[in-house]
Amino acid sequence: MMIEREVEKQVKTERPKFGRSRMATRRTLIASVAAVMVLGTTVFAGVGIYRMQREQVGSHGVDIKIAGGAESGGEAVGTESGADVKEGTAVIPDVTMEAGYLPDGMVQTEKGKYSYESALYQGGVSMVFYRMDMGDDQFHIRYGDVISSEDIAVNGYEGVYLEFPHLNPDEIAFNQRIYVAYTDVHYVMEMFVASDVTKEEALRIAEGVKLTPAGAADGENVVVAYDWSAYLKSVEENERMAETEPAGNTTIAKDQMKIHAIGESFSAEHPQTGGDQYKGLAVKVSDVQIADDLSLLDPALTDEDLRSELAGDGKLRKTEIQYIRNGGVDSLSEVVKSREVAQKLVYATVEYTNTGDSELSDVLYMGGLLRIAEKDGKMKIFSGTVNEEPAPGDTWETVVNTGASAFCEMQYYDIHGGERNNNYIAAIKPGETVTVHMGWIVTEEELGNLYVSFDTYGGAYEFSDTSLAMGYVDIRQ
Q1: Alpha-carbon distance 363 to 418, whole Å?
Q2: Are 343 and 443 in contact (CB under 8 A)?
Q3: How much is the average pLDDT of 377-393?
Q4: Are strands 433-443 and 84-86 parallel, antiparallel or unpaired?
Q5: Domain map of the chain by residue range?
Q6: Nearest to 182 by CA among 93, 285, 279, 71
């Protein structure tokens, strides 16, 4: 998976909590950290040699870079700083991170991720770190659509604060960004800040972040970071893919899509592991019901997010579809028009059966609901779950569903297990069937375009290799 995409994944709202794709990525990152650790942990010198600079571009653009290094008389990375230079890049020693301040009610949910207990996994802050293996002065990034920006100083380090438009105030969005250059250890922090965190609190959180060269015994405390060189390569690769595949794996030929019917049993083994992890596991959608309220759900398992979608009469409220003109260096994003559409509950009965000879334990399950339209022999996933694209002369470029129906992940499930008591089946004995009920909110317009993917490695927003291999269940109404 491209690093640029993974960085964006880290700050997405997680509903309903933790697909296998996150765990697979975590294994990869831990392996990367282990490889770097063996190269040593020399403490860097040269504090203050490099400076983070912000420059205004147009009315709403900001250019951020780090200036300094050998050309300005400073110390270049990899000369006498303790970094091991190889083919133009340096192996940057590991660091550990301490978050010295968190607002009241904010807790850590994962390494580098923090959210308020009242909105777990939905907002807060998420920290991403980059090793400046090409030299600190190679950091350079530009944004448009910026409401405001300013230079900041946190704990003796230079940084930049950015604020972006927040077009739907009723929803939590990551509309703030903080960059900090830790020039003594050659790291840059990118902090994604959600709208439920004030600017003042975000700056206090950043002020409390301390990076310390890691020791041999630090182990899991080592910061998971990306080499800047690898990040830049991922950006280039994504740009290349965008040119050759404009839809980004959201459009395929119809004959590439394996489709299962309601009542059909098929393998749910994991292709990545040769099926060994869940060998013999089969899945079947045995029934699908549609409702305009939440009466099919167990009230004890229905969270506040779902209940907030109800209107005063107990029915699901209408959602607002916004048509947005995107901002740039000389403009801000704005809603040019909107409309309302009814929402429905899709409630599926799903059976997981162990057809093998051994008991399966801690079985992760995930139901992703894709909205797919067929046209001219091709299958296309809706962008933003709305089947519309701008026509010539339209002033909008992006369409956004502001309700719960914008999400593809299952928003309700009634079997819980694992250490987090979420979407895991504790055990399935040979020959045993465990029934799970899953629920999603959709717009009324989407009922004729619904398919379910049970790929736990992801695949709810695009046609991934693993979801294509497993196939999709046609639940169109």
Answers
A1: 9
A2: yes
A3: 88
A4: unpaired
A5: 3-240, 247-474
A6: 93
Cα 408 to Cα 323: distance, rounded to the nearest angstrom: 20
3-state secondary structure of 168: coil
286, 252, 287: which is closest to 469 by C-alpha? Answer: 252
Task: Report how far residue 62's alpha carbon sits from residue 432's, in angstroms, rounded to the nearest whole number.
Answer: 58
Cis before residue 271, ω within 30 degrees of 0? no
Q: Which helix (H) or strand (E) holds 336?
A: strand 334-341
Query: Exposure string (b/e) for 32-45, b if CB count within 10 Å is 16 or more?
Result: ebeebbeeebeebe
β strands within 269-342, DSSP E: 281-291, 319-325, 334-341
Q: What is the pTM of this model?
A: 0.76
Please give the Cα distance from 211 to 94 (Å, whole number). Answer: 10
Angle at 133 between CA 127 and CA 136, to 5 degrees: 75
Residue pair 450/472 in contact (Cβ under 8 Å)? The answer is no
Quick: pLDDT tens for 306-341: 999 999 999 999 999 999 999 999 999 999 999 999
Structure tokens at 329: 């260096």
Nearest to 385 by CA among 424, 411, 366, 364: 411
Q: How far is residue 123's CA from residue 176's CA, in Å, rounded to a whole number?
A: 11
